[in-house]
Amino acid sequence: MKPKTIWIKADKGNWDDHKERITTGLESGVDYVLVNADEVEKVRELGDIKVAAFAHDDKSGADVVVVGKGGEGDGTKPLSPDPVGSLDMSTAIRLKEKGLTVGAYVVIQNKAYEEFAAQMGKECDFLIIVGTDWKVIPLENLIAGLQDSDVQIIAGVRDAEEAKLALETMEHGSEGVMLDSEDPNAIKSTVAVAESSGVEALELVPAKVTKVEPVGMGDRVCVDTCNMMTRGEGMLVGSQASGMFLVHSESEESPYVASRPFRVNAGAVHAYVKVGEKTKYLSELKSGDDVTIVDAQGNQRAGIVGRVKIERRPLMLVEAEVEGNIIKNILQNAETIKLVDTKGEPISIADLKPGDEVMVNYEGGARHFGMKVEETIIEK
């Protein structure tokens, strides 16, 4: 599933007002900012972010040229009886023919504007729609009507609650939301909503431990992320892609070392780690790579690898039974290395024994270059 995008609208008032809103957006991880054409370069000076601009020509230098402000889209000019003959439509087509990425901005005041938006969406790369007194129905209609068109629908919202509704409408939701708010908390919470939108929780099931034994020295991988993890969070790691153990982060205090909530001491170099819909070998991870952080309820969020340390350490084999099958993992033999029990609590492998239950993700399928495939494969 494609990640949802967050836009910030910053076109009213003076540059000082816009600057504060844009800076907060940059710090929060916003994807696009929508400004007036004369502020494109000022935005670029603030940081690396995609810039959309209200314009009617190709001179703004924006990544996305947006038509509709001061035209039919926002109601400044009356709608043409034939949307195809409208000024906004002809401008959008002309800009597209010049090779520009084009967005259409439409304020949905009534059914006629909804129909106008549907026509504009067929000619543009982005369709930015803003409601007046509506919440869902026009968005549902546009999602359904434009599902076969190559356009991304961006819904105008005022807070995180409206963003959540827009991103989940008709299951698919809009491809993104455009927030019109100067409240820094609204910007941060809307970004958080977008990050989790459309990401389904993984199914974690109990597996009964059948063996815990030392296996000697080997190379293990310690994954330091750019993210802080909390109690119950870690990564899914296993010797078989079909069954992966939730290995807890080092977010817990220990009598021996300080907590390192950014770290998962993940396992031996051969093991798989879950990354989105795929898997990677732990030995393949490097700085800047994506990795998936999972909690005890199976909720997922994206993480970034900051550093990977491969070191020779004493190792411990852990085997567990799930649905009549044995799955395995090899972890460093140390008190700070923990799995997660059925109560969502971390349990050290130093305390782990046969009969204990730990949480795993069990798929029962095979993997080919990290992608799940339907084939017979035996991993021992």
UniProtKB/TrEMBL annotation:
Residues 4-193 form the 3-dehydroquinate synthase N-terminal domain. Residues 207-380 form the 3-dehydroquinate synthase C-terminal domain. Pfam families: DHQS, DHQS_2nd. The keyword NAD applies. Its EC number is 1.4.1.24. It catalyses: 2-amino-2,3,7-trideoxy-D-lyxo-hept-6-ulosonate + NAD(+) + H2O = 3-dehydroquinate + NH4(+) + NADH + H(+). Keywords: Amino-acid biosynthesis, Aromatic amino acid biosynthesis, Lyase, NAD, Oxidoreductase. GO terms for molecular function: 3-dehydroquinate synthase activity; dehydroquinate synthase activity; NAD binding. One of its GO terms (biological process) is aromatic amino acid family biosynthetic process. The keyword Amino-acid biosynthesis applies. Belongs to the archaeal-type DHQ synthase family. Catalyzes the oxidative deamination and cyclization of 2-amino-3,7-dideoxy-D-threo-hept-6-ulosonic acid (ADH) to yield 3-dehydroquinate (DHQ), which is fed into the canonical shikimic pathway of aromatic amino acid biosynthesis. This is 3-dehydroquinate synthase. It comes from Methanococcoides methylutens MM1.
